[in-house]
Design goal:
The chain is mostly helical. It contains four helices and two strands, in the order H-E-H-H-E-H. The mean pLDDT is 91.
Length: 137
Amino acid sequence: MPKKRSPFWNQNSAACALLSSLAGTYLDLYFVGKGLYRFPHRLLPEIFPINIVFTLIGLPLLTMVFLHVLTRVNPLGKACLILIASLLMSIAEKLAERLGAFAHSDQWMHVYSFFGYLLFLTVISTVYFVAAQNSSA
């Protein structure tokens, strides 16, 4: 009897989760290095200047959930979902700031976060759907 594949966990979503983790880590390192934001409370602060829990666990899991939902909607729904998720991540960032987990410099504008996540999610979803199309061909 053939093994049933999980619609949530597949080779393409795992690759995109890894891609999102790597991209998120390097983007955080870049922006923290530039002094645009910082993480006051993080795991192993003497070693890591970024929140590795989010970039290594949270971001990949959120990416996989996002891709799972994205596979269930039509093209217009995909575009709307990317816009809504970008807006929600920008709002979550502001909430994280209020909770003390995140701090931006005075130069930072939260619209940067919206457009950053818009680009990030567009790239991740494009990679996912191109890979899925190539693996089914």
